[in-house]
Amino acid sequence: MALWYDEVYNGSLRFGAKTIRTLFVGESPYQKVSVFETEALGKALMIDDLWMCAEGDEKTYHEMIAHTAMTTAKKSERVLIIGGGDGGTAREVLSYAHVKHVDMVEIDGMVVEACQKYLPEIGTAWDDPRLNVVIGDGIAWVNRQDLDPYDVILVDGSDPVGPAVGLFNLDFYKACNDRLSADGILVTQAESPRLFQDVHVALIKTLEEVFPVVSPYYQTIMIYAGGLWAWVYATKGTKHTEINDALMTFAEQRTEHYNRDIHLGAFATPNYIKRLLKA
Ligand code: SPD
User: I need a surface site. Which of 25, 115, 207, 245 has the fewest CB within 10 A?
Assistant: First the structure.
């Protein structure tokens, strides 16, 4: 009999996949970690029964979180990834030869171990010598005063339950701002603009208290609740339209989903969000 696994929204909507087999289920000190092989989308990761990524559409998610910053940053030699335990975001960042160092700070070692073992097709850069994987608290990391500045910070956390709650608050983003270089860019995943509208709008408004340029952007991720997903691009001045042509050309040669038109179009904000942002 087929086993379906669902992310259940508010007891009233289900976002599910039919699975062929269960590859891993574990309880870490932080959360439940599960890896399944699904019939339609290949292998997939759930944390606390919420979908994190699936082979069938992870490239869209990871390309969208990484390349909007990487193609517009004046400099992107030092990159910090908070979360990102499946390795997909690090893979995209490290595709650029000019990147010198990436710190990836993931709170849950079980996520990294399970993904290295069962989802090696997603995290293809684990052995890159430029990647420093730290199993630790990203909030504590950005509050360190002894770090060289980062040119790009990517917050690839999970949904705001459990250990990821602190990745949605003002103090965290103030600390990120302090860790960024003068032209630094921060991108964070920003939930569903429909189903987690309060969280999404509150996150934008929180970032507006810290950064002069704050621009939400959107793209469809099949496995995520509501389909349409959001990220926020926040900078000390750089605008998302300031695309470096050489970097975009480089990115477009290897990306599956992301390109210049998608980059520019993704920043169109739905009216229902525009109205809430003005309120
Ligand atoms: N429910 C989806 C939340 C997405 C957060 N990040 C996913 C991790 C993929 N690297």
Answer: 245
For the chain, how many residues are written? 279
Choose one of 10, 52, 155, 222 to mutate for the ligand 1 pocket test, by most ligand atoms within 8 angstroms of C-beta: 52
Between β-strands 32-38 and 42-47, what pairing exists: parallel, antiparallel or unpaired? Answer: antiparallel
Distance 224 CA to ligand 1 centre (A): 8
Q: What is the pTM of this model?
A: 0.97
Task: Compute the distance from residue 277 Cα to the ligand 1 centre, in Å.
Answer: 24
**Pocket residues: Cβ below 6 A from ligand 1:** 50-53, 61, 84, 86, 88-89, 156, 158-159, 189, 224
